[in-house]
Amino acid sequence: MRYLLYILLICCGQAFAQGYADNWVIKNGVGLNFTTGSPILFSSSAIDPLSQRTPALSCISDKNGNLLFYKSNTTVYHSSHVPMENGQRLFYYHQDQSYSAEVILPIPNSDSLFAILHVGYMDSLNIISGYPTNYNFYYSIVDISQNNGLGKVISKNVPVIPTSLMNGKIINGNIEPIFNESKNRYEIFFLLSTTGTNPTPTKRMVIIDSIGTISLAPISNNYATHNVHIWNNRANRTISPQYMGGNNMYLRYYQYNPNANSFNLLNTIDISPIYGGVLMCFSPSSQYLFVFKPGVGAVPNTLLRYDLSQGTNTAIVNSVDTLFVNYDPFLYIKQAPNQKLYIAHYDNGSSKIGEITYPDSSLVQGNFIPNAILPQENQQFLVFPQFVPNWLAAPPFALSYACQDSVVFDLTYKTMIDSVRWDFGDPASGAANTSTLLQPVHHYSSYGKYYVQVATWWQGVADTLADTVFVEPSPHVQLPNDTLLCAGESLALDIGQGFAANYLWNTGSTDSTLLITKTGMYVATAYNNCGSQTDTLNVVVLDPPQAQLKDTSVCDNFKITLHFEADSATYLWSTGETTATIYPTTTATYSVDVANPCGQVHDQAFVEIKKCICNVYLANAFTPDGDGLNDTFAPVADCPDFTYNLIIFDRWGNKIAEITEKTPPWDGTVNGQKMPLGVYTYQFSYRGTEYGRVVHQLKNGMITIVQ
Questions:
Q1: 343, 333 contact by CB (below 8 A)
Q2: Of 193, 291, 420, 653, which has the maximum CB count within 10 A?
Q3: Contact 274, 248 (CB under 8 A)
Q4: Which residues contact 507 (CB under 8 A, 6 or more apart)?
């Protein structure tokens, strides 16, 4: 019995948004896939010997919606629609009474073990017709990891008896009816408690009725059995048909009280007259109840809808709308993972599946599509498989914005609610951990998983929904302060968030890290679904100072400059100056000490300041009187490499004197005799260097000897 106990406990946590129920095998090798939201019909060539009489009874997919295996009649088939190893001769119940008598559950703490819970009769393998009276509740175990993922039945047809559930409790004692019905049906309730994976203990029920129907559901969501009771997807309420004599049929609307292990009658819906079994299904929000009311003779079959939010018996009965009228029978109605309702029925003698597209809408016209899914040749749609109710339910709330800085919750079920109270699973936030708003906003200090609960009330009836949510992180980028690097050094930047994010640098890199070796401005951005953040860093790469001064020679008519180039440096010259540039005025050796954060250097240069222009001047008169002032005549020159020849003539053109740069100037005498006052002529020629280029000139002029 160890397997069974584990099986029952798996249902204790909220199981929203899983793919276990994404495939509905509704006849051997024929089914619907809901992974994409819209049902897609699939089929295969697999044939069960009894497939003309009995539909597939149970199936299961993995969390991603891939079909794993299913049981049809006595045989378990793997995903290729071929019998599984050791998967034959499993007990089943008579095809007329066992449409939802089976369910497959994953076993906790295992990725490969699954349990098939099924009702059967020990001689059921030989039953062709009739109603056996001796049946039992069995389980079989499948290990899907065997045979390269195709699976194997490792245990089968193990009986379950109530007394073996040592951790369970049987409500109302041994096999006693909860609802007194004219056909003497009864239920067994196994009530279990566990801490499960959630912090709050949860209770579950397993229900077996007298026609072999099994239903597993959390008490907080209610319980149901096909043909007897149906479960409410959200609240702990149920509908049960009850004959009141003749053709009078009432739907009893109950609320389960888990503390007293009892049901309280809320309302009664009169659907008389009635001529056969009743098919029912709640809308996902539980506001509407859809009822197939069978007719007989000239009275057609009808698909009705009641608005349970009207409250009173009379108001609920008067709220009825007719969605569809047909003389062919309805076979089954069930909510799908896409939150639509699907109905297996006949239309003009052909098997079809209808769709209630907007089960929570007040829309009547066009809300039911009778021929939404048509069979292929030789296919029939009879009934749908049984699943854990929560696998078909929408999450109790959505996160319209799920980032830690501002998580916005949106309650899925907004009808039939008077008030709410949220518990965000974040006790560190103090009073902010709760809210009474339908669409609250909560600020989480960090990202991660949180167990969120919302209690709802309607007309004094309380219910609590819960789910685990993941709060997404918001990106945060913080680069270091602007920095300086020495040549050869590098700086490694890392803006990795520790969670899934995208990155972009202004260099074009999309990595979370970047190695800096050059001067520049670096801009980093991290972004995800919660937004983006950007930061900027300026980096300067310095070279240490290097000797760069050179000896130089310049002309004195130019402004002389000595300049040392270094980044972020300080200077001290031999002149005492502390600037990068100085202006020498004399020929000398100049030195400087330069330092920056990456090094220092001592450098020097010899500067020669020299004449570079050739200027020559001759006077036009002189006074050779011996007073020491202007007593001689000769050229005055400021000219590099200067040489000259000066010849003086008397008034008759006779040469009387000749001087050069190597002789004394003319003192106004010839052979020791003073020359008379007056005008004399001369012929003057010279050579020199100007800016490194030789220049020469010949000129004639006059010189006057005056007193």
A1: yes
A2: 291
A3: yes
A4: 514, 522
pLDDT at 460: 75
Q: What is the pLDDT of residues 641-684, one digit of tens each?
A: 899 999 999 989 899 999 999 999 999 999 989 999 999 999 99
**H or E segment at 6?**
helix 2-9
CA distances from 478 to 316, 473, 534 (A): 61, 16, 8
Cα 4-8-9 angle, rounded to 5 deg = 115
- Could you say which DSSP state residue 219 is in? T
Identity of the amino acid at 356:
I
Q: pTM higher than 0.90 for the full model?
A: no
Rounded distance between C-alpha atoms, residue 52 and residue 27, angstroms: 9
Q: Pairing relation of β-strands 135-143 and 152-160?
A: antiparallel
For 495, the enclosing helix (H) or strand (E) is none
Amino acid at 59: C
pLDDT of 494 = 96
- Alpha carbon separation from 659 to 38, 634, 684 (Å, rounded): 123, 8, 10
User: pLDDT tens digit string along 300-338?
Assistant: 889 999 998 887 888 988 999 999 888 787 778 888 999
Question: Does 130 score more than 70 pLDDT?
Answer: no
Here the tokens at position 8 are: 């029952």
If we measure between CA atoms, which residue out of 91, 94, 32 comes closest to residue 59?
32
Question: Closest Cα to residue 152, out of 91, 68, 73?
Answer: 68
Query: For residue 647, which of 622, 680, 615 has the smallest C-alpha distance?
Result: 680
Distance, in Å, from the CA atom of 288 to the CA atom of 263, rounded to the nearest integer, reads 20
Torsion of CA 571, 577, 583, 585, to 10 degrees: -140
DSSP secondary structure letter of residue 315:
H
